[in-house]
C-alpha cells in the first residue's frame, strides 16, 4: 500500500490550521456569534400563510402596532414567515403578533411561538460555556490517564481547533447559534476525540513495537494504517449527516451544518493537529515506557 | 479452536436480542388519539346506551370513531384522526354538561400480550406531537413580601389583644419595623412576640421619636420558604393541569426556583396560561365601622364598578386557602354563583367572626398577584425589571344575616366562565408564591407531524446509505456489519422505550448520528483484519487478531464520547437532553452489537472452518 507522507507536509497543514483559526477568532471577535433566542431571550413567532406575503408589508403592519424592531424573514418556503422580537413586552406577545398578521384575505396558521425570558437566556449562556469547558477538561484528564499528558495536550489543542473553526464559520456567515448547535458542537468534541484517540492508539502501539527512533516515520505509518478506517467512518457519518441536512427539516438545519463542519475539521485535525503536535512537543519513546527509564537509571548506579 | 463461542455466549446474545425486539415492538403500534369522559358528580354513571348516543353524535358531525369502551364511571372513545380530537371534545362537552369532564387523551394501542410484559412505546416530545412548554419562575421576592405582610398582621393582632400600643409598622425588603411610643412598650412587645415568631432576628432601635423594633427574616427561613413555596406551587399547578384535561402532562421542578410545565396537544395557550399562571385568591373581610382607627382600614374598589368603593377592615377573616371544595352553579335568576365549602379551621373561623357581627357587612375580595415587566437602561444595557403588584377588588358586599357555617355561596361574578375559573382555582388551591412565565414554546400540530415525517425519512435514508457503503466496501463482512447495525437500531429503540425516554427531534438526529458512528467499531475491526491478511496471516488468525487488537481502540474512543454525552445531559434542557440520551444509549448498544453480535455471526458462519480466503 502506498504510504502518504503526512508528517513531511505538516508545516503546510499547520499554516492552514493557523490561518483558519485566526480567521475564525477574527470573525468571533469582530462579528460575534449570532446567538439564537435560547441564549438572548426574546420572542419568536413562526406562521404559515396560505399565499406568500410581501415581507415589507408585514414589517410595516407590525411597525404600525408598535413592534418597530421586529425582524421578519422567510423560513424554508416563502409561505413560512419567522418574526423575531428582541425585547419581551409581555407573555402574550406571540398571540398579538398572530393577531396583527392574520387577515381575511390571507389567513395564517401559527406554526410555533417561543418566548424566552432574558434571565433564562443569560443563565443558559453561562451554563453552556461552563459545560463546554468541563467537557474539554474531563476528556483531557481521561486521555492523560489512559495515555500520557503530552497526548492530552495534543488532543485538547486539536479539539479546541475544531470548536473554534465551527464557531468562527457560524460567526462569519451569521448562522443562528441556538441550543441544538451547542449540542452539535459537544457531539463534535466527542466525535473528533474518537478519531484522535484511534490515531493515538495506533501511535502508542507502534512506538512500543518498533525499533526505530524517528518519530515522524512512526507517526506517518500509524496515520497511514488508520487512514482507511478514518475515511470509512467519516464517510458513513457524513452520509447520514447529509441525509439529515437535506431531509431533516429547518429546525435542525444548523445542527447538521455544525456537525458536518465538525466531522470535516475533526478528521483533518486528528491527522494533522493532534498527531503533528506530538512531534512539536517532542514526544519520545521514554514517555510511553517509563519502566525502561527506571532500569536505565538503576544501571548507572555504582 | 479459533473463532468459536461457547454455547452460553450465543444464548446470552440471543436473549438480549429477543428482549430488545419485544420491548421495541410497541413502537410499531402508535397510540390512538382519544377523548376520555369521566363523571365528576356521584350517581351520574355512564351506561352503554348513553355512550352509543354520544358516538352517534360524533359520527353525525363527521368524526370517525374507531372504538369506544366503557369502564365503570368513565368511557374512552378512540378516534381515527388526531386533528378531530378537539372538535370531538367540544361536541361531547356540549352534550354532557357540567357533570362530566371530557379530556383529550392518547390511548395505548399496544397489544395485550406486550402490555402484559409492561412493554410500552416511546413517548413523543412536544416538538414531535405539538403542544405547549412553559418554564415558570417562582417570584421569591414577592413570596417573602407576602410572608412579611402576613406576619406583620399576626403581630398586630397579638399586640392589640395584649393592649400594647404601637404607632406604625413598616415593611422593608426582609424586615418589619414597629414604632412604639416608649421603650417599655417596645420591650414588652419584644418579650411577647420573640418566642412566637422564631423565623426572625430581633433588634432594638432607639430614635428621637420613640423606640422601634426591627424584625429581620433569617436566611434559613428564606430558604425554607422557598422550598415550601416551590413545592406548594408544584402541587397546585399539578391539580390545575389535571383539571384542564390534558393527556400526559408534565409538571416538574427545575433548579431551585423554577417549574416546567409541558402540555402535549394543547393549542390554546391563552387558556392554559390563564389557568396555570393564575394567582387569584379570595379574602373574606368585614366592612369597617365609622369609628375604626384609620390604620386598620383599607379602601377598595368594586371589580365591576370602578366608581364604587367600600372601606374594609385590614384584617382578614378567612382566605381562599381554607376552601375544601368549590363548584359553579346558577341561582334562580340564572346568574352564575360559586358554591364554597370551607375546611374545619376555616369553618370555625368564619362562624366565630360572623356570630359576633350579625348585621354588619362582609365583603368578598378578589385578589390577584401580578408582575409587570419593563426594560430600563442600566450601564448602557437593557435590563428587564420585574415589579410585583397586587390587584384587589370587591366581588360582593352583603349583610351578615346569621352566623355562617362552613358552606355558603358567592354571587356577583361577571360571567359564567369567570365563575367556573374561580371555582377551579379555589378547588386546586392557591399558589404559595406568585409565578411568572420565564419561557414559553408553542409547537403547532402540523410542525410536529412534519418533524416526525422528516425525522423518519432521514433515519431511513441515512440507514440505506450506510448499508450500501458497508456492502460496497466490506462485501460479505459488510452484510454482518449491516445486520449488527439493524439490531443496534432495534436495541436502541428498546432501551429508550424501557427507560421511558422521550423522543425529540434532536433525539432522532442523535439516532441518525449514532447510525453513522455505530459502524465505526466494525470498520475498525474489519480494517484491522484486512491489514493482518495483507501481512500474510492465515484467515482465521486474522479475524481473531482483528477483533482482539481493535478492542482497546474501540473502548477508549467510546468511553470519551460517553463522557461528553453525560456532560451534555447534565447541562442540557428538554430537546438537548433527548439528544444526549440517544447518543449515550447508542454508544452502549453499538458496542454490544459491533463487538459481540458481529463476532457471534462470524463465528457461527465461518468460525473454526479451514478458510483459504475471506471475502472482505
TrEMBL record, chain A:
A Gene Ontology term for the protein's cellular component: plasma membrane
Task: Spell out the subcellular localization from the entry.
Answer: Cell membrane
The residue ranges of the Protein export membrane protein SecD/SecF C-terminal domain are 108-282
Q: Name one Pfam family in it.
A: SecD_SecF_C
Q: Does the keyword rRNA-binding apply?
A: no
Q: What is the role of this chain? A: Part of the Sec protein translocase complex. Interacts with the SecYEG preprotein conducting channel. SecDF uses the proton motive force (PMF) to complete protein translocation after the ATP-dependent function of SecA.
Report the protein name in the record: Protein-export membrane protein SecF
Q: Which organism is it from?
A: Chromohalobacter moromii
Q: Which gene encodes it?
A: secF
Automatic annotation (TrEMBL), chain B:
**Coiled-coil region(s) at which residues?**
none
| InterPro entries per record | SecD, SecD-TM, SecD/SecF_arch_bac, SecD/SecF_CS, SecD_1st, SecD_SecF_C, SecD_SecF_C_bact, SecDF_P1_head
Location of the SecDF P1 head subdomain domain: 300-433
According to its UniProt record, where is this protein located? Cell membrane
Locate the transmembrane regions by residue number. Answer: 455-472, 479-501, 507-529, 550-572, 578-602
Q: Does the keyword Transmembrane apply?
A: yes
Q: Please state every residue range assigned to the domain named Protein export membrane protein SecD/SecF C-terminal.
A: 438-602
The protein's matches in SUPFAM superfamilies, at most eight in alphabetical order, are given as: Multidrug efflux transporter AcrB transmembrane domain (SSF82866)
Start and end of every SecD export protein N-terminal TM domain?
2-104
Q: How does it sit in the membrane?
A: Multi-pass membrane protein
Q: Which domain of life is it from?
A: Bacteria
Keywords on this record? Cell membrane, Membrane, Protein transport, Translocation, Transmembrane, Transmembrane helix, Transport
Which positions fall inside the Protein translocase subunit SecDF P1 domain? Answer: 230-287
Q: What does this protein do?
A: Part of the Sec protein translocase complex. Interacts with the SecYEG preprotein conducting channel. SecDF uses the proton motive force (PMF) to complete protein translocation after the ATP-dependent function of SecA.
Q: How does it assemble?
A: Forms a complex with SecF. Part of the essential Sec protein translocation apparatus which comprises SecA, SecYEG and auxiliary proteins SecDF-YajC and YidC.
Family per UniProt? Belongs to the SecD/SecF family. SecD subfamily.
HAMAP family of this UniProt entry? SecD_B (MF_01463_B)
Q: What is this protein called?
A: Protein translocase subunit SecD
Q: What organism does the record attribute this protein to?
A: Chromohalobacter beijerinckii
Amino acid at each position: 500500500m502506498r504510504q502518504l507522507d503526512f508528517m513531511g507536509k505538516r508545516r503546510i497543514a499547520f499554516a492552514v490550521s493557523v490561518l483558519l483559526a485566526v480567521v475564525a477568532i477574527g470573525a468571533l471577535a469582530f462579528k460575534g456569534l449570532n446567538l439564537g433566542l435560547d441564549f438572548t431571550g426574546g420572542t419568536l413567532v413562526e406562521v404559515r400563510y396560505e399565499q406568500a406575503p410581501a415581507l415589507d408589508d408585514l414589517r410595516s403592519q407590525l411597525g404600525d402596532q408598535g413592534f418597530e424592531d421586529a425582524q421578519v424573514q422567510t423560513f424554508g418556503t416563502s409561505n413560512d414567515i419567522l418574526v423575531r422580537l428582541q425585547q419581551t413586552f409581555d407573555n402574550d406577545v406571540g398571540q398579538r403578533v398572530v393577531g396583527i398578521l392574520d387577515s381575511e384575505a390571507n389567513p395564517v396558521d401559527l406554526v410555533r411561538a417561543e418566548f424566552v425570558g432574558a434571565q433564562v437566556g443569560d443563565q443558559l449562556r453561562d451554563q453552556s460555556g461552563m459545560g463546554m469547558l468541563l467537557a474539554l477538561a474531563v476528556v483531557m484528564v481521561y486521555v492523560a490517564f489512559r495515555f500520557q499528558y503530552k497526548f492530552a495536550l495534543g488532543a485538547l489543542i486539536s479539539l479546541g481547533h475544531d470548536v473554534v473553526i465551527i464557531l468562527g464559520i457560524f460567526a462569519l456567515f451569521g448562522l443562528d447559534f441556538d441550543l441544538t448547535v451547542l449540542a452539535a458542537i459537544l457531539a463534535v468534541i466527542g466525535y473528533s476525540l474518537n478519531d484522535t484517540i484511534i490515531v493515538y492508539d495506533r501511535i502508542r502501539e507502534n512506538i512500543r513495537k518498533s525499533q526505530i527512533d524517528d518519530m515522524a516515520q512512526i507517526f506517518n505509518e500509524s496515520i497511514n494504517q488508520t487512514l482507511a478506517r478514518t475515511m470509512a467512518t467519516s464517510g458513513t457519518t457524513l452520509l447520514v449527516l447529509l441525509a439529515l441536512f437535506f431531509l431533516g427539516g429547518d429546525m435542525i438545519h444548523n445542527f447538521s451544518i455544525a456537525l458536518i463542519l465538525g466531522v470535516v475539521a475533526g478528521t483533518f485535525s486528528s491527522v494533522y493537529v493532534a498527531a503533528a503536535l506530538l512531534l512539536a512537543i517532542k514526544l519520545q519513546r521514554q514517555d510511553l515506557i517509563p519502566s525502561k527509564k527506571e532500569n536505565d537509571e538503576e544501571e548507572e548506579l555504582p | 479452536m479459533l473463532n468459536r463461542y461457547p454455547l452460553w455466549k450465543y444464548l446470552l446474545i440471543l436473549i438480549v436480542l429477543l428482549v430488545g425486539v419485544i420491548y421495541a415492538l410497541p413502537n410499531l403500534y402508535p397510540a390512538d388519539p382519544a377523548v376520555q369522559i369521566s363523571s365528576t358528580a356521584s350517581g351520574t354513571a355512564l351506561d352503554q346506551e348513553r355512550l352509543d348516543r354520544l358516538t352517534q353524535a360524533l359520527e353525525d358531525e363527521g368524526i370517525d370513531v374507531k372504538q369506544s369502551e366503557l369502564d365503570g364511571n368513565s368511557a374512552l372513545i378512540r378516534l381515527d384522526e388526531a386533528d378531530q380530537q378537539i372538535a370531538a371534545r367540544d361536541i361531547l362537552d356540549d352534550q354532557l354538561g357540567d357533570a362530566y369532564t371530557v379530556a383529550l387523551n392518547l390511548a395505548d394501542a399496544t397489544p395485550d400480550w406486550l402490555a402484559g410484559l409492561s412493554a410500552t412505546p416511546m413517548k413523543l416530545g412536544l416538538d414531535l406531537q405539538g403542544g405547549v412548554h412553559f418554564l415558570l419562575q417562582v417570584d421569591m421576592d414577592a413570596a417573602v413580601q407576602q410572608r412579611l405582610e402576613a406576619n406583620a398582621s399576626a403581630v398586630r393582632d397579638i399586640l392589640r389583644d395584649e393592649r400594647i400600643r404601637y404607632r406604625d409598622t413598616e415593611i422593608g425588603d426582609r424586615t418589619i419595623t414597629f414604632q412604639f411610643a416608649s421603650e417599655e412598650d417596645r420591650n414588652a412587645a419584644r418579650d411577647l412576640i420573640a418566642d412566637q415568631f422564631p423565623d426572625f432576628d430581633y433588634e432594638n432601635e432607639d430614635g428621637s421619636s420613640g423606640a422601634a423594633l426591627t424584625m429581620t427574616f433569617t436566611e434559613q427561613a428564606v430558604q425554607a420558604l422557598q422550598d415550601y413555596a416551590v413545592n406548594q406551587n408544584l402541587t397546585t399547578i399539578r391539580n390545575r393541569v389535571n383539571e384542564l384535561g390534558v393527556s400526559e402532562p408534565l409538571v416538574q421542578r427545575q433548579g431551585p426556583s423554577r417549574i416546567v410545565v409541558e402540555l402535549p396537544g394543547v393549542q390554546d395557550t391563552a387558556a392554559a396560561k390563564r389557568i396555570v399562571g393564575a394567582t387569584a385568591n379570595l379574602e373574606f373581610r368585614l366592612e369597617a365601622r365609622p369609628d375604626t382607627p384609620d390604620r386598620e382600614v383599607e379602601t377598595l374598589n368594586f371589580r365591576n364598578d370602578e366608581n364604587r368603593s367600600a372601606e374594609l377592615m385590614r384584617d382578614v377573616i378567612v382566605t381562599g386557602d381554607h376552601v375544601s371544595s368549590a363548584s359553579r352553579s346558577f341561582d334562580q335568576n340564572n346568574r352564575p354563583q360559586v358554591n364554597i365549602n370551607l375546611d374545619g379551621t376555616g369553618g370555625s373561623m368564619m362562624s366565630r367572626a360572623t356570630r359576633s357581627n350579625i348585621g354588619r357587612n362582609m365583603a368578598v375580595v378578589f385578589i390577584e398577584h401580578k408582575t409587570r415587566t419593563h426594560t430600563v437602561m442600566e450601564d448602557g444595557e437593557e435590563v428587564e425589571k420585574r415589579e410585583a403588584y397586587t390587584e384587589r377588588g370587591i366581588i360582593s358586599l352583603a349583610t351578615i344575616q346569621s352566623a355562617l357555617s362552613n358552606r355558603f355561596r358567592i354571587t356577583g361574578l361577571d360571567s359564567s366562565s369567570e365563575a367556573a375559573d374561580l371555582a377551579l382555582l379555589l378547588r386546586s388551591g392557591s399558589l404559595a408564591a406568585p409565578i411568572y412565565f420565564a419561557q414559553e414554546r408553542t409547537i403547532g400540530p402540523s410542525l410536529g407531524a412534519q418533524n416526525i415525517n422528516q425525522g423518519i425519512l432521514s433515519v431511513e435514508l441515512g440507514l440505506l446509505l450506510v448499508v450500501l457503503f458497508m456492502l460496497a466496501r466490506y462485501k460479505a463482512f459488510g452484510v454482518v456489519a449491516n445486520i449488527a447495525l439493524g439490531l443496534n437500531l432495534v436495541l436502541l429503540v428498546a432501551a429508550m422505550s424501557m427507560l421511558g425516554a422521550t423522543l425529540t427531534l434532536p433525539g432522532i438526529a442523535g439516532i441518525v448520528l449514532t447510525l453513522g458512528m455505530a459502524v465505526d467499531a466494525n470498520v475498525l475491526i474489519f480494517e484491522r483484519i484486512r491489514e493482518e491478511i495483507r501481512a500474510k496471516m492465515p484467515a482465521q488468525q486474522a479475524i481473531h487478531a482483528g477483533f482482539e487488537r481493535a478492542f482497546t481502540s474501540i473502548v477508549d474512543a467510546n468511553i470519551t464520547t460517553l463522557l461528553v454525552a453525560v456532560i451534555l445531559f447534565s447541562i442540557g434542557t428538554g430537546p438537548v437532553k433527548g439528544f444526549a440520551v440517544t447518543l449515550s444509549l447508542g454508544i452502549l448498544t453499538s458496542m454490544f452489537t459491533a463487538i459481540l453480535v458481529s463476532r457471534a455471526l462470524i463465528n457461527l458462519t465461518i468460525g473454526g472452518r479451514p478458510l483459504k480466503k475471506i471475502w472482505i
